[in-house]
Amino acid sequence: MLHGFTGSILHVDLTNRTLEIEHPDEEFYRHYMGGSLMGLYYLWHNTPAHADPLGPENTLTFAVSGPTGLPVSGQSRCTVTCKSPSSGGVADAQAGGFWPAELKYAGFDAVVVTGASGTPVYLWINEGEAELRDARHLWGKTTLEVDTILEDELGDRRIEIAQIGPAGEKLANFAAIMNMSNRAWGRTGVGAVMGSKKLKAIVVRGTQKVTPADKKAVAALSKQGAKGFPGSGMESFGRYGTAGAVMSQQGGGGLPTRNWDAGVMANAEAISGEKLYDEILRGAEAGKQDKDGRDTCYACIVRCKRVVESEYQNIRLRHEYGGPEYETIATFGSYCGVDDLRAVTYANQLCNEYGVDTISCGATLSWAMECFENEVINLDETDGIELRYGNAEAMIAMLKKTLNREGFGDILANGSAKAADLLGKGHEFLLTVKGQELPAHMPHVKRSLGVIYAANPFGADHQSSEHDPVYSEKAYERFYKVPLSQIGLNTPQPPKVINAEKIEFALKTQYNYSAADTVSLCQFVYGPSWQMYGPQEMADLMAAATGWGVTVEEIQAIGRRRLNLMRAYNAREGLTRDDDTLPKKLFKKALEGGRSDGLILENEELQAGLGMYYEQAGWDTTTGAPTRATLEAVGLGWVADDLGM
Q1: Which pTM was predicted?
Q2: Per the CATH hierarchy, to which homologous superfamily does domain 9-205 belong?
Q3: CATH: 1.10.569.10, 3.40.190.10, 3.30.470.30, 3.30.565.10. Which one for 243-437?
Q4: Cα–Cα distance measured from residue 37 to residue 42, given in angstroms and rounded to the nearest whole number
Q5: Cα separation of 130 and 203, whole Å?
Q6: What is the pLDDT of residues 212-258, one digit of tens each?
Q7: C-alpha closest to that of 23 among 40, 2, 45, 44
Q8: How many whole angstroms separate alpha carbon 444 and alpha carbon 242?
Q9: Do residues 201 and 163 touch, judged by C-beta distance below 8 A?
Q10: The pairing of beta strand 199-205 with beta strand 310-312
């Protein structure tokens, strides 16, 4: 008996309107384990090399894993994989909520979508059965509208819906796929790919039980988390969510401000997680934030999701759209020099309503602001909107144009890199890697993160490795020694150095995060340092779910396999070491103010770090691609054969 998994994968051909169910053997599941790695397998085999990301040949996969749906914190995650319209390489995005667990209860471990429909459709999966239904009445509707319509149409308030908003329909380059109207598969343009297929939504409902191999072990892990949660750092994380990072980033000089001209922002307290908690979380006025202002994913005790309820200029801020995370507060707040928390929260609501990635969208607006401030673009081009730092009303006005692809917003909806190409100017202000805008963690103060930003297969990403401060000697000895030592990290380093040991830290934690995205576990609950569960518990949960006797070493190996398959896919699509770089602005302009005043990145340091990284990863130092020996070592010899190596 296959434990943990359902043993069923749904294949949907939208061109021919056919649905088939595959039942892979246990060896397939053991080798690919679900999530991102399973999605990559289907992307490689189903999508021809050099296919158009927005063409019917692109493969869009939603995949979960063995622990998904079990009664333990942090397991309800799903990865979406496809070819990215931003980079032309791999696209990869994760989201939580209740949809991932419900997909498992509906009878499937993955949904693999190929082809494209001629008219809008949605996929209805119910108790192991699936059908395509007409979605023309849903096209053009916002996320909450679609949730309401489908709940009424299907007569069930417990359905879970993964959908694109109007931005995905209009192929915005940073369109997201949404569930619960507030959980986003946000990065790498996956919503545009779903929109290109005219697939409006995937609706799931089921009551099938997930059968773990060892129920007692699952229960023990659940109790372990519940027992250690009160009074821990995770309890504080649950209280303030990721928004709690605003002031710590500010204190360290790492809060990106005015399109990364500075690492500190005047009046940062006004957009802090504490301010959010005290003033606009749902129930704040009645002192009931802990009851009403925090939401959770299926079976998770952390409850880190923000839920707001307030007003911005007489516009209702609705609790259904959740609330802003740290990255959103930074990109629409400090990136744009805006210290109006309600304006930032309204921007978050608009993004969730229309379905876009808040990081890339907010960063694109801040890029446009720097262009405007430096007279690269003018009022004639911006439709009369004065895009200056700190102008919250201008930010909101241009955001609405971007979401609707109107006027100058039609250009910005392509993302900053493509917008600069279309305009033929503004390239010197870009903050992108492989076409994707930088998230709100600065490599000036987290040096190994800069190497990961550059080398990461799907562009700069803050959730692809651990951050430098946890490997400093004081933090390591006091808090993180046990989990980090489980993956062989025993020699902490100063925060602002790049050496072989720091690169080993970056790579091994990248393997750990890569594994989490494959076995579909939340990186805020399972990780190598500050999280509630460490690498050993990741292995223990996978073993309890499947009965396979999974070890920490196998967890790391799974993460390495996934990273190498991503890298090999990019090589197949024409990406090389030349694409592993950081924005030129970071090498040309020193930061201003605060603890990071005067800091500037050096390309020589980055190149040295990349060289060490490639060597430790087993990749060719000239091309940046995995060698045949490495691919064979990680169980991907067939990839080397396909590449003719």
Answers
A1: 0.98
A2: Aldehyde ferredoxin oxidoreductase, N-terminal domain (3.60.9.10)
A3: 1.10.569.10
A4: 9
A5: 10
A6: 999 999 999 999 999 999 888 899 899 999 999 999 999 999 999 99
A7: 2
A8: 21
A9: yes
A10: unpaired
